[in-house]
Amino acid sequence: MSEVISLEIDAPDDWHVHLRDDEMLEAVAPYTANAFRHALIMPNLVPPITSTALAAAYRNRILTAAGPDARTDFTPMMALYLNDDLDTADLLAGAADGIVFGAKFYPAGATTNSAAGGTSLLDYRATLEAMAGAGIPLLVHAESTDPDIDIFDREAVFIDQQMFPVIEQIPELRVTVEHISTRAGLEIVQDHPQVGGSITPHHLTCDRSDLLANGMRPDLYCKPVINSRDERIAIAAAATSGDPSFFYGTDSAPHPLGKKEAAKVAAGIFNAPYAIEVVAELFHEMGALDELEAFVSHHGVDHYGLERATTKVRLTRHVVDELEPAESMRTAGGTEVRIFGADAARRWTWEPVP
Ligand code: DOR
Ligand code: ZN
Asked: I need a labelling partner for 262 at 20 to 30 A (CA). Which of 49, 166, 295, 301 fits?
């Protein structure tokens, strides 16, 4: 017979999140700030965050939007957008001042707000070498934009064509393969100690049949696109394995409902409200709750050379579906955004341990 499960874990981190700006930032930031200690903030605004000054101003807007219930140790970790506008000296100075944490590479055209991205990682070789010297991590959207490559193969092709050359030629550079969607992403992480991988709640729990088989689900459309069942099972196995190279990054990416239910669907899944519940339920189903804390609270800070949390969060799994979580939220101006993960949120609650 099932019974209430309760566990305490060190405060978790989100190593990949999109908070947007303005009214959307105000609506979504509290979810992340209430739940997570570190949040690694993606810089794909329009225009993108390409300088320390822009990152510092954005960080202040995030802290204001975090709201009254934010964790007192909530810390936005800022990434600069690696493109031709980024000035290496400014990046190094921003990192030395503790404002900038890393640099994110988007292949131009790969995903939402990537138009300002680059063509080839090694075009930025001088910057990458400087980052390696200063210990600044490179965060990579690893997806080929070659139209001749099948959409489900684009992570593997990018890794072959662009990531292997970078990590072989600049082995001191610390690299994160963001939102791993295939075994190709898992393998490059497993094979190289300086390479880590973030894993999202949706790539952990959904596959392309969920996306396509029973009526197409625009709410599950993201980049890199959710891949096969076999890939999902491999990703879930890696996340629950205890391998310290894999850590949680939600890739929570809100879009107005009007852009998700449109002729051309925007890529991105808003999962911040139930990000803890979804990963807890998956680990529970896999009999791996004893690995949850390592994945969501330890591996990321260890990879990035930061201190582990000194505070805890208590998670509780209820016996029946007694909760009625909201399936969408609205910004102050009334824009509706669908929320991922309500099923898990029917079972799980969590609260900071005082
Ligand atoms: O699905 C995605 N949405 N993938 C990304 O890489 C970007 C994100 C967004 O900003 O909406
Ligand atoms: Zn992202």
From this structure: 49
